[in-house]
Each structure stands twice: as structure tokens, then as C-alpha cells.
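INFO batch 0412 | record 1 of 1 | parsing
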Amino acid sequence: MRCRLLCSLAAAFAVLGPASAASAQELTPPPAIAPPPPMDPSAPGGPGDPSTMTTPESATTAKLNEAEAEDSGRNFEIVWLDAHVGGSYIDMRSFSSDSLQLAKASSGGPMVSLGAGLRFVILVLGVRAKYNALSAFNMWQLNGEVGLKFPIGSLDLLIGVHGGYSFVGNIGAGTVASGSDTVPTNNDAVKIRGFNAGLDVALDYYITKNFSVGAGLLGEYLYLKRPPVDKPAGLTADQAALVDADPLYQKSGTTAGFQLGGGLRVGGHFGF
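INFO prediction complete | emitting C-alpha cells
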């Protein structure tokens, strides 16, 4: 009886043993999966790749590049040169006159000028030489200029001031009013010097980034002075007496007047 019981237990163990081992094997967890290697932040597509990053600096640069593509294509101007061709009218004694002794103190005619200077964004500084070829006399002017140039697309609006030295060169025959018709007067001996100050308004259109055309107007105040004229040589006693009474030879004269002018402008502009 005991032998039969032990044989039954042995047979049952032989049947259940492999199944229990198989069940235990099925419950064993799978091996752990190794984590991927760490990614280089600077590698393409990585979080540190500049091409995938959006920063305030890159956004600003993009906006500047877009604005540059849409602008008028003009340079950042530093140096400018220009020439003016037009006309002017000068009245040298419109405000006051003290023995200027000019019979024709007002005159009009062609005007030309050359200028050059520097530009700092909208601030312009320059110098200019201007020649007024008037019917009664010729006047030269050497001026300094300062102004503001406001860019409006391909246009520049200039508002400026100028001032400098003015002098009369050649005086036409019959312009000098001498107190004596019997005493010869050398018009070249009549020297008129002074200063001027005025305003400028102009528009310049940029045909290319280095070349512009436009038009402008100017108005200015003149203050001029004439020193006494040297007495002619070889005068007779009667002529000497007339000269002594002539304000042209005895005392200086001053005048305050104005000038109006305008014309076309052509300019060259250089920068980067």
C-alpha cells in the first residue's frame, strides 16, 4: 500500500514538474532595452543646431534683410558732389544804402555753383562756390552749408541754411555813379565786399544710387561794403576839386540787400 502511494506521487511529480518549470520560465521578464546613445546638441537637427533655433537676433536680422530688399537700392551715402545751373536776382540796396555810389545796384542773370561735402544719415555739411553773372556786375560767393536731407523713397527733401563771403568782381560800364562826369572812373577800382546768409530748399531724385537730379530755391540776406576809391592820377586842379567832393572817393559806402535764386541740380553720391 505504501509502495503504491509513493509510485502515484512520483508519477504526478513527473507530469507536473515540466509544466511548472515552463510556467516559471514564461513569467520571467524580458531583458532590459539599452537606452539610445546621447545626441550631440550641435549635430544637425539637434536642439543646439542654429538652423532650428529662433532667437530675437535672427528675427531682427530677417526683418532688416527684408527691408533692405524692399528699399530704393540707394547707398549709405557719405560724400556728395553737385552742380547747380539757374538764375538769380540781386538787389544790393533794398534795405539800406549809405553812399554805395552804384547807379545800378539791382540786377539779374545766370547763376552757376559747385558744391561738395559729407552726409551723416540726414545731416549734410558742405562748402560751395557760386558765380552770379549779372547784367550790371558779377558777384562771387564762397559759402558753408548745413542742412537736413529727408529720404522719401527715391526722393530727398533738403532744408538748409548757408552763409559766407560775397564780393563783386567785374562792374559794368555805367554802373558806378560818380559825382563828376568830367573825372574818369576806373570801375575795376571799385571794390565791394561783404557777407551773406540765407535759406535753401530743394528736391533731389535718385536716378541711380550714385546719381541724382533735382531743383532748388534759395533766398539770402546781403550786407556789403565799399571802401573809398583811390583817386585817379594826373588830375587837373578842377578835376581834383571835383574828386574831393565826390563820396565815391572820399568815404566808404555800405548796403543791405537780398538775393533770390533757383535752378536745376545734378549730384553725385558716394558711400557703401
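INFO post-check: The longest strand covers residues 77-98.
INFO record closed
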